[in-house]
């Protein structure tokens, strides 16, 4: 014990890098007798290296004089093959430190580039020309000059300091539930609610039946046909015994996400052609919505078959396999009330009790 | 010699400590960026996005208005028979759409062709129009009753009305059907 005491003080006094390791030294520092053999002695290898550098030699003047790329290009009879002058994005993303980086997806040379938009959809033009101004007018709330809104209480409650353990504790959520609703700001010219995206989702309950994947294929192709977008499939997260669906094993659902041009084309088609042809349809239920501006409604298979894309070659689809679907209209509105105002102005009827 | 290994060890502990200090940063990393800047050994394939081929289609609504859209359907023109222009849900105040009588088999039309329209001759036209409106229905009904009473008081007026009605509104009933009508009456 006494013999170790000075060494402890010594380690504190020395800089960190020179502290001896507790672990046994690795074989990197091990020296063997065979290293001193003449075949492996380092000093012998050093003598074999050349002393003169190639960088010190002078460039001949003839090489510099003959370098004239413009004249060479002009003298060329045929155009270079495309691979010689066109940039091609790398096929793989090899990480941020790789010298060969793919261009951003907005670049036309990128492999992820999607061109467009190519047209101005009718629904979008209607929104821009009439609906947006109407909504801004309808949502206008006049406040006289000098008006100050009364201060609102904080959304997250603080702890009363009745206990010393309340110090630095995170704030409590609102009363009556932990869900913080979206904040609705007054609607001005720069936050008029508009259509953000449309999700078409279809859960195919027969997808796992009798080991037959054709239900899912038909559903995927039907949703792709009506939406102009390649669908994505999803596996079930839960077991459904009557339908023979096992979690994480069976692909049971298809989904298409529509943005921008595709979205407005689909919306116009849905409102102008498909929904009026549904028999005995009252509209979208007034209580639908997730209370943050997204409205969902469903179409049964007979209604999905009314889309012009499915009608034009109806024989291609097995009639019993045409899927129903849920259509979610995502808007930038913060409340369902604003979203319903927007959607009813764009042509979707609502019925029943209107729930905000 | 020992210096080399100890340096390595400290470097390893530093990276470990950063990962333990900032555990919340790690799940939020996107696939492209890593918090600890290290060489990414795997390569991810950049798949070209697949888009179905689309055509431009002209949609003709039932009132003749047209617009184009992009669709997977190869038909150049789509003519709709039922759309927002002629469905009641989108035109709740249209009297033309509300008064559509359900006569798919044509039986009402056949009845009219055979017997004319004299069975509702006493009903004024205004009451017929406003019959659907629930607010004005009762008022119109009362008016119709008073009108019908006044009409019945004039006996000869009814005969005039019957004889004059077919020439004004409905096409004249065929000659062979007319004796049947009078005979039954």
UniProtKB/TrEMBL annotation, chain A:
Keywords: Ribonucleoprotein, Ribosomal protein
Gene Ontology BP, a term: translation
Residue ranges occupied by any Large ribosomal subunit protein uL5 C-terminal domain in the UniProt entry: 252-350
MF annotations from Gene Ontology: structural constituent of ribosome
InterPro entries: Ribosomal_uL5, Ribosomal_uL5_C, Ribosomal_uL5_dom_sf
Residue span of region Disordered: 20-39, 75-111
A Pfam family reported for this protein in Swiss-Prot or TrEMBL: Ribosomal_L5_C
Entry GO CC: ribonucleoprotein complex; ribosome
Residue stretches spanning the membrane: none
Similarity comment text for this entry: Belongs to the universal ribosomal protein uL5 family.
Protein name: Large ribosomal subunit protein uL5m
Organism whose genome encodes this protein: Penicillium vulpinum
Top-level taxonomy: Eukaryota, Fungi, Dikarya, Ascomycota, Pezizomycotina
Automatic annotation (TrEMBL), chain B:
InterPro entries: Ribosomal_bL31m, Ribosomal_bL31m_N
An example Gene Ontology CC term for this record: mitochondrial large ribosomal subunit
Low complexity bias spans: 127-139
Coiled-coil intervals, chain numbering: none
GO molecular function: structural constituent of ribosome
Region (Disordered): 127-185
Biological processes annotated in GO: mitochondrial translation
Chain intervals with Basic and acidic residues compositional bias: 140-151
Pfam families the record matches: bL31_N
Positions of the Ribosomal protein bL31m N-terminal domain: 48-93
Protein name from the UniProt record: Ribosomal protein bL31m N-terminal domain-containing protein
């Amino acid at each position: 014990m006494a013999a170790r005491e000075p060494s402890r003080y010594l380690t504190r006094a020395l800089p960190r890098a020179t502290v001896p390791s507790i672990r046994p030294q690795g074989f990197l520092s091990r020296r063997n007798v065979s290293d001193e053999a003449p075949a492996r002695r380092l000093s012998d290898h050093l003598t074999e290296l050349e002393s003169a550098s190639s960088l010190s030699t002078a460039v001949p003047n003839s090489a510099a004089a003959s370098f004239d790329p413009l004249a060479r290009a002009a003298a060329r009879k045929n155009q270079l093959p495309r691979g010689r002058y066109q940039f091609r994005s790398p096929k793989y993303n090899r990480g941020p430190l790789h010298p060969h980086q793919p261009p951003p997806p907005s670049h036309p040379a990128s492999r992820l580039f999607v061109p467009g938009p190519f047209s101005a959809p009718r629904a979008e033009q209607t929104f821009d020309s009439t609906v947006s101004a109407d909504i801004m007018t309808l949502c206008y709330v006049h406040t006289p000059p000098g008006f100050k809104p009364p201060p609102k209480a904080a959304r997250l409650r603080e702890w009363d300091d009745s206990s010393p353990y309340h110090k630095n504790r995170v704030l409590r959520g609102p009363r009556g539930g932990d869900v913080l609703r979206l904040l609705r700001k007054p609607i001005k010219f720069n936050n008029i609610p508009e259509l953000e995206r449309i999700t078409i989702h279809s859960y195919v309950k027969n997808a796992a039946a009798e080991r037959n994947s054709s239900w899912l294929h038909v559903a995927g192709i039907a949703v792709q046909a009506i939406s102009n977008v390649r669908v994505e499939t999803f596996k079930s997260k839960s077991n459904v015994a009557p339908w023979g669906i096992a979690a994480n094993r069976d692909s049971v659902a298809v989904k298409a996400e529509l943005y921008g041009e595709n979205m407005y084309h689909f919306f116009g088609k849905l409102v102008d052609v498909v929904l009026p042809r549904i028999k005995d349809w009252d509209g979208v239920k007034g209580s639908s919505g997730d209370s943050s501006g997204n409205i969902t409604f469903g179409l049964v298979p007979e209604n999905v078959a009314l889309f012009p894309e499915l009608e034009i070659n109806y024989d291609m689809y097995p009639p019993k396999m045409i899927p129903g679907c849920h259509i979610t209209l995502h808007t930038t509105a913060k409340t369902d009330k604003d979203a319903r105002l927007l959607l009813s102005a764009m042509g979707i009827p609502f019925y029943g009790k209107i729930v905000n | 010699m020992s210096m080399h290994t100890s340096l390595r060890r400290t470097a390893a502990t530093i990276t470990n400590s950063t990962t333990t200090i900032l555990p919340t940063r790690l799940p939020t990393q996107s696939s492209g960026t890593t918090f600890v800047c290290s060489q990414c050994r795997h390569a991810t394939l950049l798949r070209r996005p697949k888009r179905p081929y689309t055509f431009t289609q002209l949609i003709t609504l039932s009132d003749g208005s047209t617009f184009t859209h992009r669709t997977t359907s190869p038909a150049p023109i789509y003519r709709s028979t039922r759309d927002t222009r002629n469905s009641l849900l989108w035109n709740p105040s249209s009297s033309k759409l509300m008064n559509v009588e359900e006569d798919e088999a044509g039986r009402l039309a056949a009845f009219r062709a055979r017997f004319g329209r004299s069975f509702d001759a006493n009903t004024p036209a205004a009451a017929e129009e406003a019959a659907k409106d629930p607010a004005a229905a009762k008022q119109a009904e009362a008016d119709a009753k008073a009108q019908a009473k006044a009409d019945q008081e004039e006996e000869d007026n009814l005969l005039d009305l019957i004889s004059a009605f077919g020439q004004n509104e409905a096409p004249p009933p065929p000659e062979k059907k007319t004796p049947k009508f009078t005979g039954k009456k």
